[in-house]
Amino acid sequence: MDDLVTDDKRRPDSADRRLMAVNEANWDARTPVHTASDFYGLADEAQALDPARWFAPYEWEDLGELAGRDLVHLQCHLGTETLVLAGKGARATGLDLSGASVAAARELAARQESGPMAGTRYVQANVYDAVEALGEARFDVVYTGKGALCYLPDLDRWAAVVAGLLRPGGMLYLAEFHPLLNSLGPTPTAEAGTPLVLRHDYLAGRGAIRRDATYTYTDGPPVEGARESVEWMHGLGEVVTALTGAGLVIELLREDEELPFPRWPEMVRTESGRWRLPDAAPRIPLLFALRARRPAA
């Protein structure tokens, strides 16, 4: 077992468990909408599992060689990125809260009859229970992000889980939507179109935020059933402090103005195939990437 954290630091309280159960039900309800969506494109597996669809070039540079490395993807949802990481040679495991999402991920993985993706496995568990759910398994790489941290109430506990999953010398790679992105929203005006303004908190401190999740970030019909989700705001300083508090060493922190999809209608496509705000808008970070390592000794 790891020597950086204790089990009690990894376990959320009962109130947080109840709120995360709301998200579990919502993600179960989202899953059939997402599996049928053009956003995920599962009808065309070559498109759905195209590395350029999910990863920026710098992510591969930051991750380095993955062949032969044990990797766990936390909060993996449908497991598309997990399979792409496996396609790079990692022995990949995906973990997600939603049983429906894990079932869909396993179905997609089962269709990969040969090659490096064929051995990918998926586990259903709350991320705070990941160390216990994965048993004795420890990993060279923990990968997570792109809409993951906002569903976690406590980043100190999350960081303790990450540290507990890593072998000595192993690394966390987090590629996540920037807290500034989550704080901005459009405010329509007749004179100026849809300027972006600060509409939501950047920092934590006000507790859980309940949201109407009748429609999700993908195309498709409204969600049937559980239509509420719960989110928590986390600033960049909170992320870094949580990881260093768990004994990890920050090696790299990037801020990026591009997203893998257009968050707002006015965004323009770049030569990389990703999306950014138009030239007339200020250059601001919309995504960040962080690499942290568990010390080897």
Total number of helical segments? 10
The CA-CA distance between the termini, in Å, is 14 Å
The major β-sheet equals: 7 strands, mixed
Number of strands: 13
Share of helix among residues? Answer: 25-40%
SSE arrangement:
Elements: H1 14-35, H2 45-48, H3 51-54, H4 57-63, E1 70-74, H5 80-87, E2 91-96, H6 99-110, E3 121-124, H7 130-133, E4 139-145, H8 155-165, E5 166-177, H9 179-183, E6 184-186, E7 196-198, E8 209-212, E9 228-231, H10 236-245, E10 249-256, E11 268-269, E12 275-276, E13 287-293
Parallel strand pairs: 1-2, 1-4, 2-3, 4-5
Antiparallel strand pairs: 5-13, 6-7, 8-9, 10-13, 11-12
Helix pairs in contact: 1-6, 8-10
Description:
The protein has ten helices and 13 strands. α5 (80-87) links the parallel β1 and β2 (91-96). 29% of the residues lie in helices and 23% in strands. The protein has helices spanning 14-35, 45-48, 51-54, 57-63, 80-87, 99-110, 130-133, 155-165, 179-183, 236-245; strands at 70-74, 91-96, 121-124, 139-145, 166-177, 184-186, 196-198, 209-212, 228-231, 249-256, 268-269, 275-276, 287-293. 38% of the residues are buried. By secondary structure, the protein is of the alpha/beta class. The longest helix has 22 residues, at 14-35. The strands form four sheets. A seven-stranded mixed beta sheet has the order 3-2-1-4-5-13-10, sandwiched between helices. Strands 6-7 form a two-stranded antiparallel sheet. Residues 1-7 have low confidence and may be disordered. α1 (14-35) packs across α6 (99-110) and α8 (155-165) crosses α10 (236-245).
